[in-house]
Amino acid sequence: MTTLPVIDIAPLRAMDDVAAVRRTTEAIGAASAEFGFFYAEGHGIADGLSERLEAASHAFFALPEAEKAAIAMAYGGTAWRGWFPLGGELTSGRPDRKEGLYLGEELGPGDARVAAGWPLHGANLWPAALPELRGAVEDYLAAAVAAAGALMRGMALALGLAADHFATGITRRPTLLFRIFHYPPGGAADDLGVGEHSDYGLLTLLGQDRHGGLEVRAADGSWIAVPPRGRSLVINIGDMFERLTRGRFRSAPHRVINESGQERLSWPLFYDPDFAASVDPLPIPATARLLPRWDGLDVHDAGGTYGDYLIAKVGKVFPELAGKQLRYLP
């Protein structure tokens, strides 16, 4: 195939049509095993929410650099929130040609996880000059999290588990990491918006504007373009899901090449396990084959909690922040 499957996940939101749910979960299981990627329609995120978020995102990246720098990631501390400049994030050790804003679940000092000093938990940093950004992000994020819950029901059923297996287990209190990325036009011919990588979490729900650039590497080594399809989400399996399913679900490498000559925006939600959840494999049959990964890493060698695993990963993305003594004590 040269295009990814398109799956209507509306039946997983309603859960009132047994036959439709079965068809949807079968499609999700097949796409997750073969590609590790698919388009999701019927996700319940209103077009108006996406349009508000897109407008506010453009306005944020158009701010003077000094105003963006006032909420730089250095001020976010171990909560790992804030803005980073062009080239400020590394993928596979190489600077990406993008800037971005790191956000997540809004947690105040009274939250037990924040009070305990858990990394990657805390308050977001918002630009004073653009108050509408917060409302747009929070409304969109609420809808995207609901869509993620529906997808996780489908994932569970596709694996032969109860629909609420994840909701009552490792995603009972999910780790929510949300990003807004801005890819400017131009750059050298070999500059990548994002270098080849696979996501290290559980499930990614990606919104993107009308300018393409995302590509997924197929099992045969070829690249599949993932152009926007209206307001469809792009869903992809992360390394942790590949581990939990013993390879039944594939975490596929992907990259971004912004050759449109236009600014490109994207909005990934990383819907990950509870920080304190064990990452032991699921009680499902092992896959008949474990294909060698593109990067030679063995995701099946992980252990401990998801927090342990995640902290070991994030310092490689922003090495200058990794010295802030990121620790996790469950």
Strand content: 15-25%
Q: Tell me the number of helical segments per DSSP (H or I, 4 or more residues long).
A: 8
> Would you count the extended β strands for me?
14
Order of helices and strands: EHHEHHEEEEHHEEEEEEHEEH
Q: What is the average per-residue confidence, as pLDDT, rounded to a whole number?
A: 89
What's the story with the biggest beta sheet?
8 strands, mixed
Counting helices, strands and paired strands, the structural category is alpha+beta
Low-confidence stretches: none
The gross shape turns out to be globular
Quick rundown:
The chain is an alpha+beta fold and 330 residues long. 28% of the residues lie in helices and 19% in strands.
Describe this entry's structure for a reader.
- The chain is an alpha+beta fold.
- Helix 3 (47-61) crosses helix 6.
- The longest helix has 27 residues, at 132-158.
- The protein has helices at residues 10-14, 18-34, 47-61, 65-69, 112-115, 132-158, 239-244, 306-317; strands at 6-8, 37-41, 82-84, 90-91, 94-95, 99-104, 175-183, 194-197, 203-208, 214-217, 223-225, 233-237, 254-256, 264-272.
- Strands 1-2-12-9-14-7-6-3 form an 8-stranded mixed beta sheet. Strands 8-13-10-11 form a 4-stranded antiparallel beta sheet, with no helix packed on it.
- Helices cover 28% and strands 19% of the residues.
- A hairpin with a 5-residue loop joins strand 10 (214-217) and strand 11.
- The chain is globular and about 55 Å long.
